[in-house]
Amino acid sequence: MPMNEAMRSEMDRAVLCWLATVSADGLPNVSPKEIFATLDGNSLVIADIASPASVRNARANPKVCVAMVDVFRQRGFKITGTARIIGPGEADFATLGRDLLAKAGDAFPIRHVILVHIARISRIWAPSYSLFPGRSEEARMQAAYRTYGVQPHVHDIDSGSDKYV
Fold first, then answer.
1. pLDDT value, residue 162
2. Which of 1, 15, 37, 117 sits CB 3.0–4.6 Å from 99 for a disulfide?
3. Domain-located, residue 153
4. What's the pLDDT at 96?
5. Number of alpha carbons in the 13 Å side-chain half-sphere of residue 103
């Protein structure tokens, strides 16, 4: 199932994703990733900044799962697929990693690009969606702000995102 534009837009607003891998001997690993980007309707790229276990596991077993959740809207996506590890010496590194390299700037060295070919995308919903189906998105967000002790700041028109304080 390829990403549609609404999915892509929501994923592009996510702050973190979590990459789940399994080692050659079956040990699961989950690692947060701050720098990632949707690539096209069928794939996304994730920066390996300091994730030797994720890289080693994906090389041994390329089946991966990626989760991303907007904690304020309390929804997100689970993506399953296969990963390919691309090192800086490979021809595809600069092309596939372009958005990652731009996000990282000089602050973070990207050791590998983890290219995930999407097999399936499914929606993640917080339990409140089924427990309180009539609750508005705004009410859900206000509850999350209280839970996490933050308040929304001015909406940044240039980036199209909310800033939190």
1. 57
2. 37
3. no
4. 94
5. 19
Nearest to 123 by CA among 11, 5, 30: 11
Number of structural domains (the chain) is 1
Identify the pLDDT of residue 111. 96
pTM, two decimals, is 0.85
What's the domain range around 107? 5-148
pLDDT < 70 regions, the chain: 1, 153-165
- Output the six-digit token pair for 62: 């390329």
CATH number of the domain bearing residue 20? 2.30.110.10
User: What does the buried/exposed string (b/e) look like for 63-73 if buried means 16 or more CB atoms within 10 Å of the residue's CB?
Assistant: ebbbbbbbbbe
Helix, strand, coil percent content, the chain, rounded in steps of 5: 25, 40, 35
Identify the three-state secondary structure at position 17: strand
Q: Please indicate, yes or no, if residue 73 is contained in any of the structural domains.
A: yes
Please enumerate in sequence order all residues whose Cβ is within 8 A of that of 152, keeping only pairs 6 or more positions apart, or say none.
Answer: 141, 145, 162, 163, 164
Q: Is residue 66 part of a domain?
A: yes
How far apart (Å, rounded) are the C-alpha atoms in residues 83 and 64?
6
